[in-house]
Design a protein that fits this description.
Blueprint lengths: L5 H17 L5 H8 L3 H13 L3 E3 L6 E3 L9 E4 L14 E5 L1 H5 L5 E7 L13 E6 L8 E6 L2 E10 L2 E5 L18 E11 L13 E5 L1
Parallel strand pairs: 5-11
Antiparallel strand pairs: 1-2, 3-4, 5-6, 6-10, 7-8, 7-10, 8-9
Helix pairs in contact: 1-3, 2-3
Length: 216
């Protein structure tokens, strides 16, 4: 394939991201707005990409189709058996793709907490883990929720009883007691734990990701 210009690479990356996220290619007008150019200029970039075999353009709305070699996989590759002498990501070693976005859903209401403590180890949540939380004011019975009691953030199994909200630790070995916030305490559910991330090497938090600690 011929080398792409900077603008052509931007167009390709934008189309790949849109197709991966929505299943549809962007319109000419959307591409133009993304690049900050006229629709005619965007069309010329697309025609250049078509000549280079990157995509094809059908005469219909959102008729852009990426060539097979330029469709971005929808997720992380799942590697099965590795044949001797083949690259780890060779096609014959792949069993599919893990679609992270589909698992997590809409990222707009997600946040991350780092766990402190060992009260949730029986639910496979360990100290130092990062829990991915969907912000919501209600959590179903038996689900893992994030609760703020006064100024303390805690991760526990949620129990709704006639006497109110109870929080159940999950560590039989330590035998931590059920928690029942007092009526004079300010208590609110702030989210539901939907995934756990356990890095082998802990990255430094970037400016774009807010990470707070929560007791477990």
């Amino acid at each position: 394939m011929q080398a792409l210009t900077q603008k052509q690479a931007q167009v390709l990356a934008f189309i790949q991201a849109r197709v991966q996220r929505t299943g549809q290619a962007p319109s000419y007008r959307e591409i133009a707005a993304h690049l900050g150019v006229t629709v005619r200029a965007a069309y010329q970039h697309l025609r250049a990409l078509e000549r280079k075999g990157v995509l094809s353009m059908a005469r219909r709305h959102r008729g852009i189709r990426l060539s097979r070699d330029h469709v971005r996989p929808a997720g992380l590759p799942i590697v099965g058996r590795v044949a001797a002498g083949t690259p780890i990501l060779a096609a014959e070693n792949l069993e599919g793709y893990l679609d992270i976005d589909r698992i997590l859903g809409d990222r707009l209401n997600l946040f991350v907490l780092q766990v402190k403590g060992d009260s949730m180890v029986d639910r496979q949540i360990f100290e130092g883990d990062y829990v991915i939380v969907r912000a919501q004011p209600w959590v179903e019975q038996g689900d893992i929720g994030v609760v703020v009691i006064e100024e303390e953030v805690t991760v526990k199994t949620i129990l709704h009883r006639r006497t109110g909200l109870w929080l159940r630790p999950e560590n039989q070995q330590q035998g931590y007691p059920l928690l029942h916030p007092r009526s004079d305490q300010r208590v609110r559910i702030v989210g539901k734990v939907i995934a756990v991330f356990r890095p082998l090497a802990v990255p430094s938090p970037s400016g774009r990701v807010r990470v707070r600690g929560a007791t477990a």
